[in-house]
Amino acid sequence: MASVVGALTGGVAGIAIGEAGSVALDPVFEPVKQDAWKNKATRILNEGQLAQLVAQALNAFDEVLDDVERNGFDSDELMSLVQLALKAPGVPEAEKLYLRSQGKYPGAITLAQLHHAYGKAQIEPQFWDHLTAAAANTLLTPAQLALGAVRSTLNDQGLLVKKLDTSDSNVPQYQVAALNIIDEAAAAGVDKERLRALIGSVGLPMSTHEAASAYFRKILTLGGYNQSIEEGDVRPEWAPFILDQARQILTAHDWVELHLRGYITLNEMYAGTALHGMSAADSDRLFLVTGRPLAVHQITTGLARGGVFQPEPGEITDPFEAAVHEANIKPSYYDLAIANKYTLPSAFVLKALATAGDLTQAETEQLLLEIGWPPDLALKVSTVWTAAKTGTANKHVTSSTTSLVTAARKAYIGGAANEQQARTALAAAGETVPNQDKLIALWNAQRALEQLPPPAAA
Asked: Which of 95, 103, 176, 239 lies at a C-alpha separation of 20 to 30 Å from 163?
């Protein structure tokens, strides 16, 4: 027995040694084999490779049939190999294409094609109908169910803490879907309690700053504010800092106004604006833009009453120029604003001066323009007012002339003045020689009548 075993062992060992020797000699013989195959290339592709060429549309069926037969396979067996090499869309892609047929979209496949894809995926036929039904009725995810419950597009099934009465709402309301979210979630492997927890996570509380503001307005208790922190996305250690930051304080502008009006000092203003992160330099700039200058007319009356302009360092020294530059008017209007620094007399005063002769027509017209009268009206009124003054003077001259003529007539008729003296007086009154002749003839007739004796008594 031992000899037999030894002989077998020796044989096995010999074979092993022989195989090892052949492997060792392979590199030596490989070039020889390669040259032999090159000189007589009679090898062909195997049947699996030929089937893949047909499946990938690189060769026609008939083109590879001869080589397949040389491998010992017929045409039916080649067809089977080709079918094995062909691939169908994956199950998710095939189900997506099948679902398109439900909506009549392009690119849809038939139920038979879907089942074919299942078969190519090596899924047992007993599962095909169930997979098809599941694909045609995709369930909402638990997260979608929770969000729908919070947004009232799904019935919350009593899982929300509170429901509000919207019966008198004047806003169109979205129709609640007829789905049972507990059953739908259970189909996804989420039970009622887990769904309730998910609803609580999806629904957010009032924002932290709104809750802080509601606390300061006595709408929420401190516990209510803390609840908004714990039910939100902020870690609890930030709660007191958020509460302090949300507390209302004076604005930076308010702090500047307080200093501008003398209620607080400059340093107090800086401290107040710093609460908003504002630097001292920016606080000074805000102070400059907040403080307003006097109106140009107020400057005129102030200077006339003994006031003194005290420009700040770097400020324009002319009070009128400083006022228009520091006001919120555009530079193109500076000169016009300064031109309005004086107040002009009213129209009643101008009329009195014009009719008294203290103003010429041109001066009156210009002043009326400067107080805002339309140009045509200023010309007409100034002309009338100055003409009225001339007319009054002419009336005085005419009255004096008439008095002189009357005195000459009385003296001539009474005999106190001769004809030459009467004519001299008439000439001084502006009467021409022909008029003088007429008046002298008339006066001679009046003198003759006055010298007649009275009639005799009847």
From this structure: 239
